[in-house]
Amino acid sequence: MTEQHENLEEKQNKPSKTKERQFKGLSLTERKQARREKLIEAGIEAYGTHGFFAVTVKDICNEAKLTERYFYESFKKSDELFQTIFLKLIDQLQHNVMQAIMQASTDPRKMIESGLTALLTTLKDNPGMARIIYIDAMLVQELHNQATIHETMLRFDRMIHAFVMLMMPHINRSEREISLVATGLNGYVTQIAIRWVVSGFKQSMQDVLSSCSLVFLSLLDTFSEKEKIVKKQS
Hints:
Layout: H1 3-12, H2 28-50, H3 57-64, H4 68-74, H5 78-103, H6 108-125, H7 127-136, H8 141-145, H9 148-167, H10 175-198, H11 205-233
């Protein structure tokens, strides 16, 4: 379908309660959604390759093979597209980690290895995603203004909190203490991931995995030892 045909079709398709007219099997709403998805995929490619600050709206539209008119149909500005992309990639990353943990053995050490391996493998296999999440997102002020980064960190805090409880369901610690520990673990892994991504994945994944695992394993050993002491005293 040419852009001229689509423009004419959309002018004729004024909002109403009646069923939307179909054009080549797609309604106006479906075509808008398809264009939005094309812009998101173009943004992932462009931002992931060149970085947010080197990419313009025109670059995104060229990548998506759409005019700028269609960009502003879905997004007010490039920051909004970037935020949408960031949250989409965070969802993918979190899903991969949680899926790996849930499919792992019930052995806490295997769960730690599986979860961290999924995180690092996802980043290394998707360098564009890694760049967007761990480099550019930290520098885009809009994400800080809208507390997007803060809320994302809290999401991973809660995920790690749940992970700790899954590993040690009988842990004798307050919710507040476990929450603080989860925040610390999240910050630790995040800083290692940032350094790894910025270096271009220079260090071997095994070394990075070992470094990330260290604190989780130490925590496991410490809490497990204290649990044994408490049981002996009771």
